[in-house]
Structure formats: C-alpha cells, structure tokens
Amino acid sequence: MRFLETMNEPAEGLLRRLTRITPSCEAALIALEADRDELIGVARYSADTNGVAEVAVVVTDDWQRKGVGSALMNRLIGIARQRGVRRLISLDPNSNQIMQHFAQKLGFRSQTVPDDPTMICYTLPLT
Questions:
Q1: In sequence order, what are the beta bridge partners of 46?
Q2: pLDDT of the chain along its 127 residues, tens only?
Q3: Which domains does the chain have, with CATH numbers?
Q4: Are 85 and 53 in contact (CB under 8 A)?
Q5: CA 58, CA 123: separation in Å to the nearest integer?
Q6: Across the beta sheet with 38-47, what order do the strands follow?
Q7: Going by fewer Cβ within 10 Å, which terminus of the chain is more open, N or C?
Q8: Residues contacting residue 70 through CB under 8 Å, at least 6 positions apart
C-alpha cells in the first residue's frame, strides 16, 4: 500500500526509479536484521528543484513499533538537512492512524489535502 494501491508486480520504470538513487536530489536508507541479513525497513526521499522532498518509510510488520522507522527517518531527516532540502512532505490516507501518530512524533504538521479530503499532507520544515 505504499503507493496508495495494491501492486502485485511493479513496472520496470518504477523498479529503476526505486533502485537507482540520484544523490543530488534523492536519498535512501535500509535497515537489515543483523542475524539474518534480512531487509526490515526502508526510508527514502526524492526532492524537486525547489528543495521540497517527498518522503516515505516502510517497515516490515514484525519490526513495527520497535523504533526502526523512527531511526531510519531521523537519519534521513539529518541527511536531507545536510543536503539543503528545505521541507519534507508525505501524502497518506487520513485513515492511516499509525502514520498520523508517527508523523506527529517526528514533528510533522498535518493538513487535509484540499481537493481530496481522504488524504492528509504531512509537512516538516527543515530550515
């Protein structure tokens, strides 16, 4: 559901975009379970030319509410600041209570999207 819809198999272009990072405007971090070298979380951002970056974080079910998402996001926020990103945003369904709590804990402000009241835009100024 990261892309606001169920996806059985991502398109080739989306796979390329998600796996080839352009350091001048993107960053991606992963978290691995040390014992099994298994991917348990990903956080990333992609910035536009105005310094506004859309941010996303995903943590596997078994590792949610254990600080993995917070650790990834706090590190990603630091990287974004170092690289001159001015603001992070995330668009999420307003029914996602977990995201609402998570965003609030990280200091993001929330606002309903004017043309889609089912969505919330979370914003974190970095300057």
A1: 26, 54
A2: 445 556 677 677 766 666 678 888 999 999 999 888 899 999 999 999 999 999 999 999 999 999 999 999 999 999 999 999 999 999 999 999 999 999 999 999 999 999 999 999 999 999 8
A3: 12-125 (3.40.630.30)
A4: yes
A5: 18
A6: 26-33, 38-47, 52-59, 87-93, 116-125, 109-113
A7: C
A8: 102, 105, 106
Please give the structure tokens belonging to residue 43: 């956080």
Residue with tokens 């945003």: 89
| Structure tokens, 112 | 């309903």
Residue type, 89: I
